[in-house]
Amino acid sequence: MPQQTEKEYKEILRQYLEDQSEQNLYMGEAFSRKLIERDISPEEVISIHKSALKDVLPGLPSKVWHSFDFLIEMMIRYGLALKEHQSLVKRQEEMQLEMEVASKVQETLLKTKIPVVEGMDLGYVTVPSRTMSGDYIYFVGNDMDEAGVAVADVMGKGIPAALCMSMVKFGMDSVQHSSEGPSGVLSVINRIVEKSVNDSMFVTMMYGRYDAKSSTFSYASAGHEPALHYRASENRFVELDAKGLLLGVSPDARYEEGSVALERDDFIAIMTDGVTEARTPEGFVEKETILDIISSVKDRPAQEMAEHVFAELDRMQGFRLQDDFSLVILKKE
């Protein structure tokens, strides 16, 4: 331990004990910066203080000196724990920064635009439960007569899920101008995911296409949550389910395709399990409750409907989403 440091500290301590002025405290504060610059550990500071005190106040009882030895041992352990904690905090801050940057990249990469289709009102909400989202919504619109929408959910969270979703986006870009129906589109995406994504990552996805000329909505599903078809003339919901393996399981997977005719004020609701498996402290939100929430705003525009459903389920969950939330509404005008 440098003798010069001990000498300087002893003089500052002596002056403080004699005067106890603000100036003395300021000198001590300034000296503490020198200790940091000289890389002197907390336990070494205590040793310096003990040594200086022996010269300044030599008549103190022996138990006082023993207490400093005890404090030195404590500070050694404390210093090690503090360094480990600071290192962990730094790593967490760096990781959080990386996640925020990755989130912005994901937001830009997965940005989609609602197409304008004659006789169809479209709206959607997608909100991640964490920094990165494992849900994905993609609209396809080549002309005024037709529009497609994909809703996907990666089984996983964070950066791995986001990277997986980027492959789905790549696949959707490749079929944007294709004449393939929903089952064909899922087959293409499935082969891309199966080749490009880790075996532990799987994706559910529903792809639907609306044809304005015939007012029909055709759809196919890769293990995704069934879409809901609200029939205005009957005032009831019908599930649109279609058989199909999750994306990435098998390159030879085949996807069943269905089709429904839409009448005025009918709508299709496509969602991820963040909607259907919303949880409150009492348990999962009942399916009938979700249907009632959707039905209560059936006369509003599609975007308002989606936003209302999110707001209600978010409120019921105490404004703490347990899973990524994604909902698309396609409403026949």
TrEMBL record:
One of its GO terms (molecular function) is phosphatase activity. Residues 121-332 form the PPM-type phosphatase domain. Its EC number is 3.1.3.3. Keywords: Hydrolase. This is Phosphoserine phosphatase rsbU. It comes from Bhargavaea cecembensis DSE10. The gene is rsbU.
